[in-house]
Amino acid sequence: MKPLKIAIFSGAIPSSTFIEELIKGVAQHHKVLLFGVIETPKIYKSKNIKVYSTPYSHIKNLMYTLYRLAQLLLKRPLDSVKLFQEIKKYPRFYDQWIWFSKFLPIVLHKPDVIHLQWARDMEFYTFLKTKFNIPVIVSLRGAHINYTPIVEGHIAQLYKKYFPVVDGFHAVSVAIALEAQKYNAEPSKINLIHSPVPRKTFKLFSNIKKNNGPIKILSIGRFHWKKGYKYALDACSILKEKGIQFEYTIISSNKVSEEILFQMYQLDLVNQVKIVKGKTQNELFQVMKTYDVLLLPSLEEGIANVVLEAMALGLPVISTDCGGMTEVVKLNESGWLVPVRNPNAMAQAILDFQETPENVVNSITQQAHDLVKKEFNKENCIEKFLTLYTSVANK
Amino acid sequence: MKIGLVLSKPPAYSETFFNNKIKGLQEAGYKVVLLVQNDNASFSLCETKKAPKVYKRSYIQLFKSLWVFITLLPYSKRLVRFYRLEIAAKRSKIQILKNCYNNAHLLKANVDWLHFGFGTLALQSEHVAKAINAKFAVSFRGFDVDVYPLKHPNCYKLLWTKVDKVHGISKYILGKAKTFGLPGHVPTEIITPAIDTQLFDNKVEILPKPESTLYFLTVGRLHWIKGFIETLEALAQLKQNGIKFNYIIIGEGQEFEPIKFAAHQLNIYDEVKLIGKQAHKRVVEYMAQADLYLQYSYSEGFCNAVLEAQAMGCLCVVSDGGGLTENILHGQTGWVVPKRNPKALAEKIKEVINLPEDEKVRIAKQARQRVKDQFNLTKHHREWLEFYQNG
To answer: Residue B257 is part of a domain; what is its CATH number?
Structure first.
């Protein structure tokens, strides 16, 4: 099979950990083209990965753009005309210039497939499909599907207009696939591909040992309203009232929000709740293993990576039933599940967990581990993406 | 007597509270000068002096700094005094230079009182009053003593040793100031906000509304401290009990997203109307026709909106957060519900909407009367005069 030219597009180079893994994996079989703005310089070892960036500096950008335009005029003059027509829809000259310099390398190197990592980018990049006939794949993940269209009405309209044009969708969970169908995503085009969990987490798996000290509860994730920490603190307050000994730690990459800080003081939880700065992945996995249970109080998630990692490591999980979480956390099988926005249920789940005998907890963490190992491994994931790309490109 | 009021910007037309304070002082023969960080050309009630602008480009900033220091030369005695006080407080030289620059407009002011309208505004200006031989007053209103010190422990340590008089808008606020170190010997005064009750005497036109649908209202910035999420959670319970309502939120702010998403997730998306900022006249109209005004904040300094709602004869259900318990007397002028407890709020709303009509009228009347008697501008003017006289 002839290798394809696949554009994996997130707008930024390099992109998030998962997307970088995908790039690396796909480059073993096909050419990967990266477009966008270089945020921190990165050297890709694979010869199959080609970076065609749009520079930040206007002068540099002008030189790149002129050179690329000359190439396009020589190769496919008609395409340059089409591109000029496309950018006319932007009213301001400055926007026309910026968009032109971003679109031009994509049109010039014309990939066989473009994979948009963020659904919102469809607003600008769908013309690659409609005008240049480049097959488009769109990833359906987290916030972009679960709440942006609810909060911003025009985004919902946008999705409804553009989703029918898309050749294939990548959904991170069943729940998000269903959500996307509300915006006219055709079910037959949606491919469920789970995000992989780092392999080393599986190696770190061990059984838990129950002790009689205060129960050590952990949450990991940045401070953002969708993470639902407010409810976790409300649950802590209930535990405290009941006289339960516990410690609750939040590990976050960003600074504590005013709201959560205020709540800690107002509910008098300053001695029970600890806020810890983010860590490197390796440190984090070690630290996670020193806790009794991971709590995910979120209001919205695709499938939270941190839960998958905890399951792989053998850390018991209490999660809300938001988004795709119910697909991995199953009550009394692979963890403890509670409704969203319900501090009472959350506190009760913590108590239930505490009363569960060690051997039962270990059978749950074992099942959780096996589930993640089976469904969320890297090889499987890359394989599915390759199938998706080839099927779309060969249509 | 001349009073220098330090604010971040001149009060907008709608901030009747500040405007009336200024007018009241002027009527009593005081001179008032506003000392602000950002100007507003449309403000004309009194003289306004602006702080030197801080520039992003360092060479412009350097040039401007030189100029500001030249303009400070006639005030060199004050500047020296300020510098010595700052040195004595062990501030770094760089910080002192910054403070000289940022306080230049204050150092030039000829006033008997230097009154900071918000606690955080007085930070890095603690020595100015003494340097210019004025008395040093600070107002605390909410965020400045409720939230800010949590992020910046001991931020007011120096201020407490320098301030001559402290104003709080409620008992709660002064209590908070004390927990954050305000010493007992510093004179304090509670002066609550006041409203022009005459404004609310006019009959307002009632907008048409569908029968059998209740109409709830909150006015305020979309800010986490306002407890909108808990309010929505309570309302979701009402919907489950078959109660039909519309909930109107007037205001805008950062929490738009979580509020909108909560409405969706709680299945009350159609009932919750976020109508953004509205003109004061419209706000009052909404208050006139609402069945209930809700203020389920985690904390409030006092809350003007609740005063206005009472003046409009609208029944109020509020939380026990901060100064709200002083604003509403539970069972007499409205109802107070424990904060952060959506279930309790839902129960209370159900109870209130099912009260007999005459009981509702009785509470509304009492609330209106209390606002007229205790939160009127005449009383407010007198309190401010006394504040400066007894300083």
So the answer is: 3.40.50.2000
Q: Which domain holds residue B238?
A: 197-374
User: Which residue type is seen at B177?
Assistant: A
- Per-residue pLDDT tens digits for B49-62: 899 999 988 899 99
Same-domain status, B143 and B46: yes
Chain B CB contacts of A340 under 8 Å are 265
Closest-approach residue (CA) in chain A for B146: A262
Chain-centroid distance, C-alpha B273: 25
Q: How, if at all, do strands A190-192 and A168-171 pair?
A: parallel
Is-contact B216 B244, C-beta < 8 A?
no
> Letter for the amino acid at A273?
V
- State whether B152 and B206 are in the same domain: no
Report which DSSP code applies to A232: H
Residue A182 in tokens: 């509300």
Domain annotation covers residue A87:
no
> B147 and A262: CB-CB below 8 Å?
yes
Of A151, A258, A261, nearest to B257 by CB-CB distance is A151
Query: Mind telling me how many Å the CA of B137 is from chain A's nearest CA?
Result: 27
- On whether both B164 and B238 belong to a single domain, the answer is no
The bridge status of strand B292-295 relative to strand B316-319 is: parallel
Contacts of B81 (CB under 8 A, 6+ apart): B130, B131
- How confident is the model over A170-219, as pLDDT tens digits? 999 999 999 999 999 999 999 999 988 988 999 999 999 888 889 999 99
Nearest to B261 among A151, A258, A259 (CB): A151
What does the alpha-carbon distance between residue A47 and residue B138 come to, in Å, rounded to a whole number?
66
The two three-digit tokens of residue A75, written as one number = 């190769």
Chain A nearest CA to B141, separation (Å): 16
Across B360-379, b (16+ Cβ under 10 Å) vs e yields: beebbebbbebbbeebbbee
Nearest CA in chain B to A341: B233
CB contact under 8 A, B264 and A263: no
Measured distance CA(A380)–CA(A20) in Å, rounded = 16
What span, in angstroms and rounded, lies between the C-alpha atoms of B263 and B255?
12
